[in-house]
Amino acid sequence: MLVKQILLTIIGLSSGILVAGGLFGFIVSLGVISDFADRTHSGNRIRLYERALALGGSLGNVIDLFGIPMPVGRWLLAVFGIFAGVFVGGWAMALAETLNVFPIFMRRAKLVGCIPYIILSIAIGKGIGSLIYFWFGW
Fold first, then answer.
1. Per-residue tens of pLDDT for the chain, all 138 residues
2. Is the domain of 34 the same as that of 93?
């Protein structure tokens, strides 16, 4: 019985590490990290960003797996939500940019002059939706 539990633990951890490594590799290959570093003019810190991404993902998995409570209050939860939203939004935009979805759509729909307003409205909508979700707990 003990050998079975140890074997299942090793297989589970190995599988999780492989999946997380694949996800982080996908994020890096999309250029999310290098794109953020380029836009903030901090390209000399890319290694730090990659390590922070791997450490954050690993700690997030451990916290979720073991159900570690995080009694930090609503304000820190809101800050985390903003950072998570920026990350997921950057990831989605990098994926869409890689696929050239937005440039083709904007050109065909003749919305080239409205791009800043469209991006702003998407961001405001996501922010309002997140606030409603966290305030009312839906």
1. 889 888 888 888 787 777 777 777 777 777 777 777 887 888 888 888 878 877 877 787 777 778 888 787 778 888 888 888 887 777 777 776 666 666 777 777 777 777 788 778 888 888 888 888 888 876
2. no
Residue 49: which of 30, 64, 35, 63 has the closest Cα?
35
Residues 53 and 83 in one domain: no
> Tokens 């999946």 map to which residue?
19
DSSP letter for each residue of 109-135 = TT-GGGHHHHHHHHHHHHHHHHHHHHH
Last residue of a domain, one of 35, 50, 68: 68
For 85, residues 6+ apart whose C-beta sits below 8 A from its C-beta are: 126, 127, 130
**47 plus 5 within the same structural domain:** yes
Q: Kindly report each contact of residues 127-131 with a partner whose C-beta sits within 8 Å and lies 24 or more positions away, as own/partner.
A: 127/85, 130/81, 130/85
Segments forming the whole domain that contains residue 94:
72-138
